[in-house]
């Protein structure tokens, strides 16, 4: 197959769809693939370049699809392969690229590979997962912790060994030191490329390899701890994750993966989960030709505010540590508190931040409902579904508050489903439906369309350089320029007049 140029992603805007919560067509209270297909004209009307669809593979749903039991199958909750093919065809008719979520660092414990692997130490899949003998006293082989709480090791009596799980015990880590595992993952990706996908979002891309010597992670001093990857109450943040992830062997595999994608003209977004070395890894993974095109960064997905000074500092660090990288910026996604609530934003403030986001250098991910200005839903413990939230409740309430159903109209359950949804539809969200905002020229929805259109209109915003970024009080200033045009962006990110700008005013000057 001849190599195809891949640049559609560069500076592109990608709309993330969480399939369980987008549109239900079967009346079971859970969104599905035909529901996504039905709503694709709406997505296309936003002016985005692509959709990223969170996992829909066959799964016992212990982590709602991020625990895969068949990488080439579609869970019946969401439909079947014919439904997926119809989705791809409709998206391409509408000019949308389709990226799907690949969870390769771990599988479900119900995957046939793991069922075989755990059965004995000498079966054909025995080395497909990360197994280790206990210490002489029977305790786990080292001090590694799971992001979802507790040790990262679980005892398997049949082998009298521990297996590694960086997340739930039901999500055993695959052993990428085994070439057969790498080869199988590449063939799995080829299966979806042959079905027409335009790229992938790689979940936990820096977790593929572990330290083969299983060395202990050193402690991390309190002053260096960040809550970017895990909430502050999680002891996972007490370690420097030097050995359980982000290993140098990952580079060679990413180069193999990238070579496969080039032959299809496909692109990839990585998700680098590392609070200490995220920018260094961003440069390693995306700043060198022949690896990933872009990667998610977490700088705007955490924190209690996003002041002008913080944005300036992030880009100063980016230019210093990862000058050749290509980040993908986002303010909300399926794993974090929606930014409207996280930063306590009014509508004018949310519009200003959306404009700034769509003027930054890099690519952009928007999360479903973000364009409606949806706040975080307050989910009661009785309605909670997320195992992460159940583990750390009430200090950390999990991720369900950002995963509630999309609100389309004022009908039953916001037009999402005729049945009781898997998560409740908040009353506050029903005041922000798509239909309601379509009728209001000043709505958040129309502002997002305008801001996305602004990015498409100006080549300097999509792919130009970004220079002279600085903050003077609440006013953020930076320049974007390419060979065709130069722009200066000035944004007052405050509720008071500053720098000659009205509260929350974003000024774009050509010249």
Describe the structure.
The protein has 511 residues and is of the alpha/beta class. It is built from 13 helices and 17 strands. The strands form 4 sheets. It has an 8-stranded parallel barrel.
What is the compact description of this entry?
By secondary structure, the chain is an alpha/beta fold. About 25% of the residues lie in helices and about 15% in strands.
Tally of helical runs: 13
Distance N to C terminus:
44 Å
Structural class: alpha/beta
Radius of gyration: 22 Å
Helical residue percent band: 25-40%
Q: Strand order of the main beta sheet, please?
A: 1-2-5-9-10-11-12-13
Can you lay out the helices and strands and say which pair or pack?
Blueprint: E1 13-17, H1 33-45, E2 50-53, E3 57-58, E4 70-74, H2 81-93, E5 97-102, H3 112-117, E6 131-132, E7 153-156, E8 161-164, H4 179-194, E9 199-202, H5 250-262, E10 267-271, H6 278-286, E11 294-296, H7 308-321, E12 327-329, H8 339-342, H9 347-357, E13 363-367, H10 387-392, H11 434-438, H12 444-457, H13 459-463, E14 465-472, E15 475-481, E16 486-492, E17 506-510
Helix pairs in contact: 1-2, 4-5, 9-12
